[in-house]
Design a protein that fits this description.
The protein contains 5 helices and 2 strands. The protein is mainly alpha-helical and 121 residues long. One of its GO terms (molecular function) is NADH dehydrogenase (ubiquinone) activity.
Length: 121
């Protein structure tokens, strides 16, 4: 029968092994890999054609802000589902906690709305 301490020895062994392998592989790369940088190698290159035009981003930063807000507010479902499943067990305490959580989310939503973070144009 394993004791509680033996389980952590295995975890510690795995962490040490992973760190050792990472350091070993990085060191071998520095020793064995050839490194001959030049101006030609440092130029941007894509699909066989050198870049002649400046790179234009595909998406504006506004897209990423809206995507992050979606992820943040979509995560509330992850917390609401277990709450709804165990609603009878949690009772009034769980209801008040979820009301506070949703209130804080609404404050964040209104803040983002007032700052104009949800405007696409």
């Amino acid at each position: 029968m394993q004791t509680y301490g033996e389980n952590w020895v295995v975890v510690l062994f795995m962490i040490v092994t992973a760190a050792f392998m990472g350091i070993l592989l990085l060191t071998l790369n520095q020793i064995a890999a050839p490194s001959r940088p030049s101006a030609v190698k440092s130029m941007p290159y894509e699909s066989g054609v050198p870049d002649v035009d400046p790179v234009v981003p595909r998406y504006t930063p506004r897209f990423y802000v809206i995507a992050m807000l979606f992820v943040i507010f979509d995560l509330e479902v992850v917390f609401i589902y277990p709450w709804a499943v165990s609603f009878d067990y949690l009772g009034l305490f769980g209801f008040v906690d979820m009301a506070i959580f949703l209130g804080l989310l609404m404050i964040g939503y209104v803040y983002a709305w007032k700052k104009g973070a949800l405007e696409w144009v």
